Queue: 2 jobs
Job 1
Amino acid sequence: MSQFSFQLEATDPETGARAGTWTTPHGPVQTPAFMPVGTLGTVKGLLPDQLRDAGAQMVLANTYHLALRPGSEVVRELGGLHRFMDWDGPILTDSGGFQVFSLAKLRKMDDEKAVFRSHIDGSLLELSPERAVQIQEDLGADCIMCLDECPPANDVPEKIRAAVDRTTLWAKRCRDAQKRDDQALFGINQGGIDEGMRTRSAEALVPLDFPGYAVGGLSVGEAPADMYRTLDFTVHQLPEHKPRYLMGVGRPVDILEAVCRGIDLFDCVMPTRNGRNAMAFTSSGPVRLRNAVHIRDESPLDPECDCIACTRYSRGYLRHLFAAKEMLGGILVSLHNIRFYQKLVHDLRIAVKSGTVAQFRANQLARWNAQP
Ligand SMILES: [Zn+2]
């Protein structure tokens, strides 16, 4: 019997926003949920306990990076990813494809596999659907992803169509290659920002009966309005009673808009990457701590936040840490940003369950847009 189940607890009739509980072998995930990104098996600068205290239920790790360093066999020999990084909650790994196409020097790609050079030492490596599944089985995350081809959003229609069809072909091969029964393998919908292509992808993937579906190929350079429009005609084509995951998105406003279109799961490097660069997301909009206006600022980063950075320190102190290049600055603002994202998805969940999500959305947009 499957160790996974997805229970929808509420759906907002007006927007399609959902609240649910996704049960995994490493515990439940209450949705909508945001996964902090632990690229190399660590959410940069933060301990697992701090992530959990901030409200994170599930984390993401990157297959491409871990396959190169330290190698998936090493992670397997050291007890698998949960033990390796000391995170006993659910974990999701991507397929590695996105980094092969975006980070590595791609040498050759056909329907069989991608051949690429490592961005670390230039060595020649291969990634096929079967290899992507094998690496992810070594790592041992709860949720794993099919290898897909993610074309640029503005690519010509023939290339988008070819990527959709190759993604379908690879999805079947990933499903056939899967040996472990304690990992949920998700199919990935592709198709750029074209309704016909997204439909073509959904119609091919849904019959393969994956336990969950991701929407890939968004937040890759298209305008936010195009992303929202794409979600409008894509999400309802995915099965209602399975989790829906929007890969690599995004800004708080994108998460708000995507929840209001029926997405359940998110991941993005933005809270930690921006945190390391002195940029905080707050209840009244973004704050840039390098700005000189904060030098003598006694006020907390976000008066509505309960994290350590906001309850124990001033903006003036946080700005000083960045000016002095002290590592604690990046740690504290990363922690704050993760807390901000977790509170956002938690508040959205409450709003869906209480039937107030449209009002919640309007209030948030008004507050964020009020930022000077
Ligand atoms: Zn905070």
Note: The chain has 15 helices and 16 strands.
Job 2
Amino acid sequence: MKVVVVGAGYVGLVTAACLAESGNRVVGVDNDPARVALLQAGGIPIYEPGLEEMVGRNLSAGRLLFTTSMSLALEDAEVVFIAVGTPPREDGSADLQHVLAVARDIGEHTTGFKVVVNKSTVPVGTAAQVLGVIRERLALRGPTGAQVAVVSNPEFLKEGAAIDDFMRPDRIVVGVEPGVVGERARQVMARLYVPFNRHHDRTVWMDVPSAELTKYASNAMLATRISFMNEVALLADQLGADVDSVRRGMGLDPRIGHGFLYAGTGYGGSCFPKDTRALVHTAGQHGCRMQVVAAVERVNAAQKHTLVDMVLRAFGPDLRGVRLAVWGLAFKPNTNDMREAPSRHIVVELYRLGATLVLHDPVATSEAQAALADDLGIPWSELHRLQWATTPMEALEGAHALLIVTEWKCFHNPDFAAMVERLRYPLVLDGRNLYDPDTLQELGVAYHGIGRRNALGVQALASGGLRAQVGQRRQMGAGVVV
Ligand SMILES: NC(=O)c1ccc[n+]([C@@H]2O[C@H](COP(=O)([O-])OP(=O)(O)OC[C@H]3O[C@@H](n4cnc5c(N)ncnc54)[C@H](O)[C@@H]3O)[C@@H](O)[C@H]2O)c1
């Protein structure tokens, strides 16, 4: 089949590459000429494991190409995916300007019969809006014989595991309109997804509004599990319980399962924060209150301050002279995506309180530097108290504490002895609960995670006890780096 995918970002590029990999002729369209030039030259603009190889393989085989021209791309295509961004507006609603711009573009250039697929995450009613915009543009062109069906096919891939998620999906949700045109679209979509349904049919057919809502409800449920565990973790801290033991005890219940029960520094990324807000907004527009989801958001906003609170408990409110190592900036491992990453709140708050921060992320260097400079409104080159370390161990040199913000695999099993040697005070504040508190206690490391800690960690966080260490060093002229 000939397929067009509009938007060459995380979702569009993965969709284009995976559909080409399964034998289709795919044209990727993006309105960013630099992005298209990079893709045409065999590079990729994002970090996603395995994607560069897959794009390269399909470019060489001639099944995949990229262009900025919608009119060229649409020639004899059967299916057109819309996979452009739907960022949040100030009021929490989804900004549909990119989706509707693509709809206009399709309306201006389409011929014959096309199935237009909304893959972007969009509020209920958007498919109808897209169809309306396309028809408006078609009407301006006069008789063309062009016909369009709009279907909803939300995407459930996870950044960092996107190719596997697309190639071996748990489910494929497709919403089609009733009637003859909708049935024709259903047959086209069924044919397109045959390679992904070989073992058993994973497609869940439904009406369009239900498909649109399924995406938001799914993300809201996952976010709910995270915020729920974050609240359990705060309680565990007060009760002297260990949230990781609680998680394992809960997860073995098949009605609960293990997924998304990890306490941490809060969820971020390009989906959960904006999609939960958009769901609450949509509900409000229809006179409904999504009270659970609204609470999930509030808990998450507070959770992003947890590591900062720990630093303040350990060092007091004035962080001048305090040097902190930070491991992990991307919103989760295996991506360079910094959209709504909790690290941004943590680093910005600590910086504003006077701390010096030495940052390390295995992949998201330039994205993190750009995001932090933007948040602080100061060019990266002038942020002298934000320093970049090229290795995790280098970041620890002379730091008063280590903060773990993203659970990259390479942080899971570090050389703890080397860690202790480099840290000025061996305090590990673990926003991802990577380590065993007892093992670290045996090594003399004060450890405090989210709902798990050792006695040294509790002691270190008691009443700004470590401030004296920083002061002492200053008086002794011990070369505190500020
Ligand atoms: N990132 C994820 O993990 C994920 C997962 C599931 C669903 N989604 C949803 O998928 C959609 C896309 O997300 P993303 O993360 O891939 O976004 P992205 O920002 O990475 O990519 C969007 C791309 O669209 C291009 N674009 C914008 N307007 C265009 C236009 N008029 N014509 C052509 N190209 C245009 C941009 O240049 C960019 O390359 C969003 O609605 C998002 O909520 C994302």
Note: Residues 6-12, 29-32, 35, 83-86, 98, 101-102, 120-121, 155, 157, 159, 270-271 surround nicotinamide-adenine-dinucleotide (CB under 6 Å).
